[in-house]
Amino acid sequence: MTIQEPRNPRPAARTKPNRKAVNVALQGGGAHGAFAWGVLDRILEDGRLDIAALSATSAGAMNAVVMAYGVSIGGIAGAREKLSEFWTEISRAGELYSPVRTLPWEKWLRAYGFQSEFSPIFHAFQAMTHLFSPYQLNPFNFNPLKDVLLKVVDFERLSHCNRATRIFLCATNVRTGKIRVFHNAELSVDVVMASACLPYVFQAVEIDGEAYWDGGFMGNPAIFPLIYNGASRDVIIIHINPIERSKLPKSAPEIFDRMNEISFNSSLMREMRAVEFVTRLIDEGALDASKYHRMLVHSIRDDAEMSQLGVATKLNPDWDFLCRLRDTGRRRAEEWLDKNFERVGQDSSIDLEEVFL
Questions:
Q1: What is the pTM (predicted TM-score) of this model?
Q2: What is the Cα–Cα distance from 195 to 216, expressed in whole angstroms?
Q3: Contact at 8 Å (CB) between 308 and 276?
Q4: Of all helices (H) and strands (E), which one includes residue 155?
Q5: 263, 271, 213, 189: which is closest to 237 by C-alpha?
Q6: What integer pLDDT is reported at residue 76 of this predicted model?
Q7: Is 141 helix (H, G, I), strand (E, B) or coil?
Q8: How far is it, in rounded angstroms, from Cα 35 to Cα 331?
Q9: What average pLDDT score do residues 70-93 get?
């Protein structure tokens, strides 16, 4: 793994009085990122936690830059307002351009318990992307998400503003297969698009002569930047992809969905196993406690809810759907705050061995 050092190193964030500093790690997952929107919105509204740094990938990268920009112009209120504006614009753009936008009969199917992986529109789209590359299907490299980001975020201001939350965005170098972590001073709309570049949908994004794909292949999200550079030992992971599923996948769509989830969770699972190993060595006295410090890990997720959603719904821009995920995220965040706030700064609120090993 390689970390590109920022061209203009930023001072460590200072925790505001009577607030606990935490780092937040945001997974990617397309429209499912609205769940993370809800989690962030509730944490910001609560006000007891100071989000000192964000590590993010794909849809998580979009949430991260939007939130950080909002902080830079209006503090907590600005962050919440910008997140709401961003997802509203996503829905509006999706209604015009989404290849799998929801049809009335699909809503009827979902009402009776069917998932949108039955959508013939999605299957046709998926088949096309397996037969033709984005260089053939989308030669002009059109991406409405780029326009949305440019409308909501002033990247020039974000990359130079010391009031913005510290950000670490992950992308995958196509040539080397290594992870690239971008810092605040390097942020641009192309960096975010690189972090969210699904190679079967969009052309690789070129930055400084290198081509990049979605960061989820190598870090979804990456935790190590928060270990090396974070202002807090506490890391809250906001999960999008379910870690566990109780039902054995048997249909082709179910198998495809589970393969997708496992693939995009794999890098996080590996990192957390390493964290658990180092934590155990510290606890056993095998490492010098004056040089090595325990990382405190927390997790906000809803596997039961997210496992009901197929991969097709990651491309669903329907406003009611996005609001449903937002509200679910807010509920899970509130439950987590009620149960675990006092543990922040003291110990981990999850059992690393049970969850990740």
A1: 0.87
A2: 8
A3: no
A4: helix 155-160
A5: 271
A6: 97
A7: coil
A8: 10
A9: 97
